[in-house]
Specification:
This protein is 64% helix and 0% strand. By secondary structure, it is mainly alpha-helical. The chain starts with a helix and ends in a 10-residue tail after the last helix. Keywords: RNA-binding, Signal.
């Protein structure tokens, strides 16, 4: 009898907790998983809290792991980073030549020299979900996850400016500068 009361109470709590104001919509059972813990830590490092944690979960899912993955988010994130970088560069120097602008944008979006470095500093190689046959530390994997974060933030916030601001808070105010996390 006592066991059935507990079961009824547990089912009741699981059913109502997502509807309680201020309570996360993530189920009680997923809060303790290592992946969920890593996502919570990542949000603290980003200094951005997702309204929909599922967006960050997807951003940290490589195509080798699932059909629901970060490919589209990475494309959006790359565009957010490039647009934000171009805006910052031209805001500082409106006479910057197109050649210099392209060169500097190439530096900031380069997989090897910038994107993967920033992603590794965040520890994304330890967070991104990949298939057993995929190396989570490969620069392309880390860079895609890094870019996907900013695509996910743009979708979560409903505007790319917020994602660009998070990028600059992590990357630094100038090209080539990565801030310690």
């Amino acid at each position: 009898m006592r066991s059935s009361r507990f079961t009824v109470l547990a089912v009741f709590l699981i059913a109502i907790l997502p509807h309680v104001p201020g309570h996360a919509t993530t189920s009680v059972l997923t809060l303790s998983s290592p992946f969920s813990t890593a996502l919570e830590t990542l949000q603290k490092q980003l200094r951005y809290t997702f309204t929909s944690i599922d967006l960050l979960r997807r951003a940290m899912t490589h195509p080798s792991f699932s059909e629901e993955n970060n490919k589209a988010f990475a494309i959006l994130g790359a565009a957010v980073i490039e647009t934000s970088a171009a805006f910052h560069l031209l805001s500082k120097d409106v006479d910057l030549s197109p050649k210099d602008l392209n060169r500097r944008l190439s530096q900031i979006t380069s997989v090897e020299s910038s994107c993967a470095v920033d992603g590794m500093r965040l520890g994304l190689h330890k967070v991104v979900r990949v298939s057993p046959k995929t190396n989570s530390s490969a620069p392309a994997v880390v860079c895609a996850a890094f870019r996907a974060i900013f695509g996910a933030i743009a979708i979560d916030a409903g505007k790319s400016d917020d994602a660009g601001n998070v990028f600059w808070s992590l990357h630094g105010a100038d090209l080539g500068i990565s801030l310690p996390i």
